[in-house]
Automatic annotation (TrEMBL):
<comment type="similarity">
    <text>Belongs to the pterin-4-alpha-carbinolamine dehydratase family.</text>
</comment>
<dbReference type="GO" id="GO:0006729">
    <property type="term" value="P:tetrahydrobiopterin biosynthetic process"/>
</dbReference>
<dbReference type="Pfam" id="PF01329">
    <property type="entry name" value="Pterin_4a"/>
</dbReference>
<dbReference type="InterPro" id="IPR036428">
    <property type="entry name" value="PCD_sf"/>
</dbReference>
<protein>
    <recommendedName>
        <fullName>Putative pterin-4-alpha-carbinolamine dehydratase</fullName>
        <ecNumber>4.2.1.96</ecNumber>
    </recommendedName>
</protein>
<keyword id="KW-0456">Lyase</keyword>
<dbReference type="GO" id="GO:0008124">
    <property type="term" value="F:4-alpha-hydroxytetrahydrobiopterin dehydratase activity"/>
</dbReference>
<dbReference type="InterPro" id="IPR001533">
    <property type="entry name" value="Pterin_deHydtase"/>
</dbReference>
Amino acid sequence: MQTQSARLSDEEIQVRLLAISDWQLERGELQSTFSLATFPQAIFFVDAVAHVAETEQHHPDISISYDKVTLRVATHAAGGISEKDFTLARRISQLWQVLRPL
Ligand SMILES: C[C@H](O)[C@H](O)[C@H]1CNC2=NC(N)=NC(=O)C2=N1
């Protein structure tokens, strides 16, 4: 298994979570919900997330509920959370800083 996609321990996960306050550990996955102002804005945000996911070759589960986007990330082959999940989560949080509604 590649180092970046190796399963992290609970302690390693907790340490990394401290640095990305908009993500939580939920049912063994990293999860975050982003609130937009409108449905089209939610779709626009998801499209930008999709581009980031493709560049990382790591893809979140995506749920859209009107103006809210919930993202969940885990590493299937590792059966848990890996560094790749945190890399993707951090990049999405950076994207959010740019695209969040004022
Ligand atoms: C070969 C390819 O890298 C894998 O199938 C990737 C694709 N995207 C993925 N995305 C996520 N979230 N978890 C994975 O385990 C995963 N696996």
